[in-house]
TrEMBL record:
InterPro entries, alphabetized: Glyco_hydro/deAcase_b/a-brl, NODB_dom, Polysacc_deacetylase_ArnD
Domain NodB homology: residue ranges: 15-197
Organism of this sequence: Paenibacillus rhizolycopersici
Protein name: Polysaccharide deacetylase family protein
SUPFAM superfamilies: Glycoside hydrolase/deacetylase (SSF88713)
Record Pfam families: Polysacc_deac_1
Length: 210
């Protein structure tokens, strides 16, 4: 597998998917997401921005205390390929340190902002930090554009299968549409026999089946 590869889904026979949330933590919307996953007894992965962790440290801690995974989403959400090598390292390192303060452990996964990466970036993020780059299958849902709950649900449903990684946002702007769409999807998937797991758990399940 090329270090440049972005993982959008994994090969899996078991009915399991990974919900992921970008750009938080957010003191309004992140707790709502936590409630949803508590109700369905599922886990999710939150790709957090360093500056947002600094603003909402208690919210970040709540995510960890609820048993969810926290992934690295850089410090300031730049287009990484436009930065120098040193700037990329700084973006990753600052947020890694913040996450370690919250969880006591180095994060295992990262998502490039805008899913924008390159061989040069991957040489640092994968080669030096050991992070697989995580994408998603439901980009057409465009929840960040607030296109309506029905659109987010419908476009995500089209991409649901065992091993899917699903992208949503709990940070910046009004995320009430995302929260309602996730509430619907989480309940539907759980009722259909899917397990909602973290990205690291999904990768491990796939590796175990291989």
């Amino acid at each position: 597998m090329s270090s440049y590869q972005v993982i959008n889904e994994v090969s899996l026979r078991e009915k399991a998917v990974a919900f992921t949330f970008d750009d938080g933590p957010n003191p309004i919307y992140t707790p709502q997401v936590l409630e949803i996953f508590q109700e369905v007894q599922g886990k999710a992965t939150f790709f957090m921005i360093g500056t947002q962790i600094e603003k909402s440290l208690e919210t970040a801690k709540a995510v960890h205390e609820h048993g969810h995974e926290i992934g690295n989403h850089t410090y300031s959400h730049p287009h990484l390929p436009e930065l120098s090598s040193e700037e990329v390292r700084r973006e990753m390192q600052l947020t890694e340190e913040l996450i370690q303060q919250v969880t006591g452990a180095k994060p295992k996964v990262y998502r490039p902002p805008y899913i924008d990466t390159s061989e040069e970036v991957a040489a640092i993020t994968a080669g030096e930090f050991g992070y697989p780059a995580i994408g998603a299958v439901n980009g057409a849902a465009t929840d960040w554009e607030m296109p309506g709950v029905a659109h987010i649900v419908e476009k995500t449903r089209e991409q649901i299968r065992p091993g899917s990684i699903l992208l949503f946002h709990d940070g910046f702007d009004d995320r009430s549409q995302t929260v309602e769409a996730v509430r619907i999807l989480a309940a539907e998937l759980t009722a259909a026999g899917y397990r909602l797991v973290t990205v690291s758990e999904l990768l491990a399940l796939s590796a175990a089946e291989a």
